[in-house]
Amino acid sequence: MRRVVAKPVAAAIVVFARAITAVRAIWPNDGIPQGQCVYFANHSSHGDFILVWAVLPPSLRRKTRPVAGAEYWLKSSINRFIGCNVFDAVLIERDRDKRTRDPIEVMAEVVDSGASLILFPEGTRNQTDAPLLPFKSGLFHLASTRPNIQLVPVWINNLNRVMPKGEIVPIPFICTVTFGNAIRIDAGENKETFLDRARTALLDLSPKHLGGKE
Amino acid sequence: MNAANADLWTLVLGIFTLLIVSSTIGYLLHRRLPAGQSNAAIENLNARIKAWWIMAILIGLAFLAGRIGVLLLFGFCSFAALREFITLTDTKRADHWALAAAFFVVLPLQYWLLWERQYGIFSIFIPVYAFLLMPIISVLRGDTERFLIRIAEVQWALMICVFCASHVPALLTLTIPGYEGRNVLLIAFLVIIVQLSDVLQYVWGKLFGRTKIAPSLSPSKTVEGFVGGVLSATLIGAALWWITPFTPLQAGVMAFVITMMGFFGGLVMSAIKRDRGVKDWGHLIEGHGGLIDRLDSVVFSAPIFFHIVRYWWSTT
Fold first, then answer.
1. Does the ipTM surpass 0.95?
2. Distance, in angstroms, between B69 CA and closest chain A CA?
3. Kind of pairing between the strands at A176-179 and A150-157
4. What is the pLDDT of residues B79-117, one digit of tens each?
5. Which of A87, A122, B197, B253 has a CA that sits 20 to 30 A from residue A11's CA?
6. Distance (Å) from the C-alpha of residue A44 to the closest C-alpha of chain B?
7. Which are the contacts of B186, defined by CB distance < 8 A and separation ≥ 6?
């Protein structure tokens, strides 16, 4: 039953997101990154992965799974349905003390199965004025255990204006999702250097300035 | 009604012939290029022709569906235009409810008033009620930073994208003796003149353009393009008198007013784009940028055209 409903619900959510945001992908000059990737994006809204998912070509979208916090997506049965059934999220436990499995292990397993991931390296939604929070170390550890995987920076613009935290009515703003060229971890690259490089690659995609000076 | 249908069909036939001719020219120009080469101007032209096809077909379908079709089409245009406009403003989180009201209350109400033919309230709803109530909604959040700029931006967006744009379908509500059942042709006249004037200014400018008319606003616009475009669009307007309630001379004057408003409206909207640091309003229509890029001249001429016709021709 859940499976049957999940597909149309996914389609409806994508149609709704497109109707409100007219979301458009901006690809790098080299074209759409092909093959298995870890997309790492800025995070300001629960809808972030939906936009990334919506603009990916269907062939890539089918094998792309968002990485999300288990606390939120298991909170209620509707969250669970949307997270697990509709978007097939890879749920990770963020609380160090209570968790039963290491998130890196979980993600690496999914990568080994051939799926692509959508990852938010800031670890939480950015509610500050800064464009990007410092990265958590997850991206580095994942890249170290699977050094061959392409890491694609993805900048999601304007979705935070569509539905700021605490609001219930979405405002139609045009959103863009900008993909950068893939990066890879270098052999022996240390954590600080790598995270700094990844963060810069992502920040480079942010619009220089256009409206929404929040 | 029969004469109206005949005129409409003649017009449709004319427009499709024109589109087929343009598509053929576009195709031949493209073929003349050496294999593997591309030319930005020709590609842009072909993208524009494709967009005109879509525009003509959409408007044609709306006409077929009648008043509800026209209202829905322009209601959708207002929505997409308002979204493009608001995206480029500096609104803050404190404007959230005001913006929600603009999109989901003011916009549908304005078109619903047209459907109900409530001209009195239709013509003051946004300039009076929205003008006073929207800042009240914003001020309740208590955020005063850039307050005047924020409320002015939202009001401007509503005036341009909803109020002015809704004057195109408002032409359907006029009652002109001897012109009953043919009001859609007024919309066709307005849209055709504005679009042709844009194209003709572009063509005249490409052929004879020497002197820039507004270098800081719109570097591609020239005096030669402007004069040639306005004159030829005015002549075409006069030649289209048979689809309007006007005499040929009156139709020419109307076309002249429409093209002038359209031209200066285009300059105003260019100035806003420059101020915001963008080249196009959006990416909705391939080759045309955003919807506002195509709608700017219509938006500026529609209310003036509407009021001239209403004052001198309509009994309502």
1. no
2. 19
3. antiparallel
4. 999 999 999 998 888 889 999 999 999 999 999 999 999
5. A122
6. 14
7. B171, B174, B244, B245, B309
